[in-house]
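Researcher: I'm preparing a figure for a lab meeting and need a structural model of a single chain. I don't have an experimental structure, so a prediction will have to do for now. The sequence is pasted below. Please return the structure as C-alpha cells so I can convert it later.
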Amino acid sequence: MAIRLTDQIRAVKLSSRCVSLLDTEAVWSGRLDDEAPLPSLWDRVHLSRLGYQMAADLAAIHGEIGLVQTLLHDFRAVAKSNPELLARNLQAAEVQRDHDSIIHGTHLALEHLEHTGHQEVRDLREKARLLGGVEGEGESVEGALSRLMWGAVATIGGFLIVAASVLVAVLGGPIGAAGAAAALVVGGKLLDKGLDVVLEQ
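Model: Understood. Here is the structure written out cell by cell.
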C-alpha cells in the first residue's frame, strides 16, 4: 500500500507533464482563439512545435495509465484502512471533494483518457501539421484539447500529487513529504478543477 520510490518518482514526473501540457494548451488556445489576431508565419511555426509537443505529452500520459491505476487502487485501500490519515492529507491539500468523489472522478478521467487519448493525439498532430505546412497557411485551426480531456488531464495531474503525498505518509513520513506543502495545495486545486469538469458529464 505504501508507494515505492520508483513509482513516487514516476508520479512526480507524470504530474509535472500534466501541468506542462495544460500550461501549453492555455498558450495554444489563446493564440488560436477566434477573436485573436491571425498568427504570423513565424508564430504558426512556433505553434506547430507546441502542438507536436502537446501530442507527445498526451501520448506519454496515456502510456502511464497503468501507474495511475495502481496509485488509485492504493489510494482506495488507504481510504478503507486509514481514513484519518487520508482526511488529514486532503485537508492539507485543501481539496474540496471527499475521497469517494476523488476515486470516482479519477476513474472516469482514466476511462476517458484510455478511450479517446489516441484520437486526441492524432488530432493534435494534424493541427500541428497544418500550422507548420504551406498547405495550411491562411487556414483557421481550432484550439487544442476537448473540454473533457482537459478535465481528465487536470484530474490525473492533481490526483498524482495528492496520492503520492498520501502514500508517502503511510510510510510514516510527514504530510506533504512528496513535495513542498505549497505544491500539495497546487495539486489539490488542480484536482478540484479537473473533477469539476469530469464529474459534470
